């Protein structure tokens, strides 16, 4: 259930942000969509460990929060593209900071990339 009382202390804005973009996949989805508009199957290729069901769920949640936009084209076969919204683009510095920190973490701990 979503938490809505964020006036509790100075850490609450962080809690609010993580509630919206937290989890294993939302940050990665946003990172890819900040780079370029992407179709569903391309996102699946970029994140091979995510299931189709989970990707659909995460995309719907991000769309409901107005962080991404879904564009369906009236073609046969149907074509759907996802892009970062203007509001979602405001997260770019935070997503890039997470990306940078993640690279440092992986190098520091000798993870193979």
Automatic annotation (TrEMBL):
In terms of superkingdom, the source organism counts as Bacteria
- Tell me where the transmembrane regions lie: none
Keyword Transcription regulation present in the record's keywords: the answer is yes
Could you tell me the keywords of this UniProt record? DNA-binding, Transcription, Transcription regulation
**Every HTH hxlR-type domain range:** 12-110
Q: Which GO terms describe its molecular function?
A: DNA binding
Q: Enumerate the InterPro entries for this protein.
A: HTH_HxlR (IPR002577), WH-like_DNA-bd_sf (IPR036388), WH_DNA-bd_sf (IPR036390)
Stored PANTHER family? TRANSCRIPTIONAL REGULATOR, MARR FAMILY (PTHR33204)
Query: Could you tell me what this protein is called?
Result: Helix-turn-helix transcriptional regulator
Name the species this protein comes from.
Microbulbifer okhotskensis
Q: What's the source species' lineage?
A: Bacteria, Pseudomonadati, Pseudomonadota, Gammaproteobacteria, Cellvibrionales
């Amino acid at each position: 259930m979503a938490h809505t009382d964020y006036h509790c202390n100075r850490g609450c804005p962080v809690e609010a942000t993580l509630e919206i973009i937290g989890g294993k996949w939302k940050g990665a989805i946003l990172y890819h969509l900040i780079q370029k508009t992407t179709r569903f199957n391309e996102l699946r290729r970029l994140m091979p460990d995510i299931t189709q069901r989970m990707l659909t769920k995460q995309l719907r949640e991000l769309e409901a929060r107005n962080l991404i936009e879904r564009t369906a084209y009236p073609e046969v076969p149907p074509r759907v593209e996802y892009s970062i919204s203007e509001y979602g683009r405001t997260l770019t510095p935070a997503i890039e900071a997470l990306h940078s920190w993640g690279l440092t973490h992986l190098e520091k701990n000798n993870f193979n990339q």
